[in-house]
Design goal:
Helix content is about 40%, strand content about 15%. The chain is α+β, with helices and mostly antiparallel strands and about 100 residues long. The strands form two sheets. The protein has a two-stranded antiparallel sheet with strand order 1-2. The longest helix is centred in the C-terminal third of the chain and has 14 residues.
């Protein structure tokens, strides 16, 4: 997808609670908590194993999937995100597709 296509889809998916960089497009650049949840993640990322190879991770209340994507980046074999809000799940599916 091009940057313009990503930007268009981000807008179509509505307001984002997680600010994520998707191919150079910020999903919530004006988030009232700043770079959230990135700022929060940086405070506790070292508490999570850097190598999650061979593991399955369950992200309960995944929202747009920020933490799910971080777990996949750490090598988790499988990441399952669940949320009760279908819009957040749509955002998470899209974000995961862009993140690879």
């Amino acid at each position: 997808m091009t940057t313009d296509q990503i930007r268009t889809r981000v807008r179509e998916l509505g307001d984002w609670f997680h600010n994520m960089d998707l191919g150079g497009v910020q999903t919530a650049p004006d988030h009232y908590l700043g770079d959230y949840p990135g700022v929060k993640w940086r405070r506790f990322a070292n508490a999570i194993p850097y190598d999650l190879s061979g593991r399955t991770v369950l992200d309960i209340g995944c929202n747009a999937g920020f933490y799910s994507i971080e777990m996949k980046r750490r090598g988790a074999d499988r990441v399952v995100g669940v949320d009760s809000d279908e819009r957040y799940l749509e955002q998470a599916r899209f974000a995961a597709g862009i993140a690879g």
